[in-house]
Design goal:
This protein has one domain: Hexapeptide repeat proteins (UDP N-Acetylglucosamine Acyltransferase, domain 1, 3 Solenoid), CATH 2.160.10.10. 6% of the residues lie in helices and 28% in strands. The mean pLDDT is 95. The chain has helices at 16-20, 33-41; strands at residues 51-52, 57-59, 64-66, 71-72, 77-79, 82-84, 89-90, 95-96, 100-102, 107-110, 113-115, 117-119, 124-127, 130-132, 135-136, 141-142, 147-148, 168-169, 179-180, 188-190, 195-196, 201-202, 206-208, 213-214, 219-220, 223-225, 230-231. The chain is mainly β. It has 2 helices and 27 strands.
């Protein structure tokens, strides 16, 4: 239920993408491995095999890989380490803050921010998204304005104290007690084929099974959401005449 293979088709993964899940039991265990896997990959300098338009900014270019047919548009800002596989598109205004891995054909879009996250093949966050400490499966599509928040309001520790609260999950089908992820920051884990409507907000620690559709404007609470479902917000609209 919480294994990587419960969310993603691991048989499609190769190279550093396969390495990311090596030895991982609970799926969120891949999140802190992003930095390690990229550090290992960039023991050899990065390469730009695709097209980077003038005006794009690449910081720590020695730890940035841009695959064949990939395109980085003017105005994009990429801070390595970052691995962008073949045919990726990083659009104008995208901001990659480090430890980002994107598979073949991914779209990292305008005014969207990515940090310590994975996008598997053909995943798309095309407009005004925040993707932090998150894992997106194959063909995941984030509607405009989707935010995958990664840090709770009460997680910040007082000055001079011990580190803040780690993200815990209540999943009764797995454990009667809260599961401690051990992570100070955890965004969303969206299985293959998950799609969100516009302006969805996922609270820190959302796990969504493959194929689920999340309708617009839903605030998705942390925890486990089954695959193959529709999650919708019920609302009542009222019309009254102008006085």
């Amino acid at each position: 239920m919480l294994r990587p293979e419960d969310f993603f088709d691991l048989s499609r993964l190769a190279g550093p993408f396969a390495d990311l899940f090596d030895g991982v039991c609970e799926v969120w265990g891949a999140v802190p491995r992003l930095q390690l896997v990229l550090e290992q990959f960039f023991r050899k300098p990065g390469k730009v095999l695709g097209h980077v338009e003038p005006g794009a900014v690449l910081v720590h270019a020695e730890s940035i890989f841009v695959g064949r047919g990939a395109r980085v548009e003017a105005g994009a800002y990429i801070c390595g380490p970052a691995y962008l596989d073949d045919a990726c598109c990083v659009r104008h205004g995208a901001y990659l803050r480090g430890n980002v891995m994107a598979g073949k054909g991914c779209v990292l879009g305008h005014a969207s921010e990515f940090k310590n996250s994975l996008l598997l093949d053909e995943a798309s966050a095309a407009h005004f998204a925040y993707v932090g400490d998150s894992l997106l499966g194959h063909r995941v599509n984030l509607g405009a304005g989707t935010k995958l928040s990664n840090f709770g309001l009460l997680s910040e520790p007082p000055a001079g104290s011990e580190p803040g609260r780690t993200v815990t999950l209540r999943i009764p089908a797995v454990s009667a007690s809260p599961l401690d992820t051990g992570l100070l920051k955890l965004g969303a884990i969206l299985g293959d084929g998950v799609r969100t409507g516009c302006n969805v907000v996922a609270h820190p620690g959302c796990l969504v099974g493959p194929g689920t559709l999340v309708y617009p404007q839903v605030a998705l609470a942390k925890g486990y959401w089954h695959g193959g479902r529709i999650i919708k917000l019920r609302q009542t609209l009222e019309q009254t005449p102008l006085s």
